[in-house]
Amino acid sequence: MAGRDGGCVVPVDTPTAVAGFKKKGAGSRSWILMDSSGQENLMDVDKHAIMQRVQIHARDLRILDPLLSYPSTILGRERAIVLNLEHIKAIITADEVLLRDPLDDNVVPIVEDLRRRLKPENLSREENRYGNLAAHNDMETAEEDDSPFEFRALEVALEAICSYLNARTIELETAVYPALDMLTSKISSRNLDRVRKLKSQMTRLTARVQKVRDELEQLLDDDDDMADLYLSRKLSGASPMSEAGAASWFLMSPTIGSKISRASRASVATVRGDENDVEELEMLLEAYFMQIDGTLNKLTTLREYIDNTEDYINIQLDNHRNQLIQLELLLSSGTVCLSVYSLVAGIFGMNIPYTWNDDHGYVFKWVVVLTGIICAVLFVLIISYARHKGLVGS
Asked: CB count, 10 Å around CB of 117?
């Protein structure tokens, strides 16, 4: 079979190729390979084997390392798309998908979706003939077959990450709203700590959603970056002599000839048109950009609700604080008046001989009564002045 570079593609037995492709080492990782012919292989390979297979640089493969905290990224290279979207770490070529950690709980649904969406055209028609798919699924499959392989794989990844982040947002909303309502009804340390933890989760989730949204927006703003993702177009328009150094690629992909022809048919509309025409990919990215933007709007609304609740709690606390200040003012005013009363009592209680103390016992009751009246009047005047100045509520 003729290859892209004019050489011959030697068929290789799949188990033998996979066994030879496995290299146990310190950098080995679990990958699943799914190609356009419907075949899939679970492999344990190191980064050098991946670099040779998809012909990318080490810095691009380092983005997919789960031990390194790289943000969400979609990179278009000459022969591959490097995809790092949260737990989705994949390398997409014009005829196959390499997905990392396929046994992870979050990745298993993506593998199942890839099996369904990347099903070969002949298998899909056969299932349709035997009635295994519904009518609306038939139309969906037909639409998917019109798109290049890499776009269908990219759409699966974008749909998965958007659905995943939207589900996390809905879970957070379900937990936040009751917690905020409970906090407004009863302000306690337990409720405050619960809301604080939920707010921290929301902040982290918002940052993750924002990064995915920014990455899609950056792609939509740059036509050159979107054009780099048209792998089938570049594969169809490549010169045979320019790919003489890809012998190892063909050895690992024995059905490359049929894949190239299929990729050519899938992208015939774009190949015949302008090479810079990115309308198909732009519509795909815009659809998921709107979806992730809606998720971000949910988180923004949730943050506003939390901020409003915090403002309400602060108003309540300020009101309680004002009430305490008013009570303190009343107690301070009463203390001042009683101190006047104590001053008079202390003066008359001194053990000093005065001539006017003799035969004037009736003065005691008048001193007590008059001093009490004066203190009460003084207290009323202080409170009246405070109310006049608005220091004490009416």
From this structure: 15
DSSP 261-307: HHHHHHTHHHHHS-TT--HHHHHHHHHHHHHHHHHHHHHHHHHHHHH
Query: pLDDT tens across 324-340, in order?
Result: 888 888 888 889 888 88
Question: For residue 11, what is the DSSP state?
Answer: P
Report DSSP state, residue 244: T
Per-residue model confidence as pLDDT tens digits over 61-93? 888 887 888 888 899 888 899 999 989 999 999
Q: φ, ψ for residue 351 (rounded to 5)? A: -85, 65
Phi/psi of residue 178, nearest 5 degrees = -65, -35
**Of how many residues is the chain composed?**
394
Neighbours of 276 (CB within 10 A): 11
- Whether the model pTM is above 0.90: no
For helices 279-348 and 363-388, the axis angle rounded to 10 degrees is: 160
Radius of gyration of the chain (CA): 38
Whether residue 159 contacts residue 117, with contact meaning beta carbons closer than 8 Å, is answered with no
- How many other CB atoms sit within 10 Å of the CB of residue 57? 10
Question: Are 12 and 251 contacting, i.e. CB atoms less than 8 angstroms apart?
Answer: yes
> Angle at the Cα of 243 (from 99 to 84), degrees rounded to 5?
20
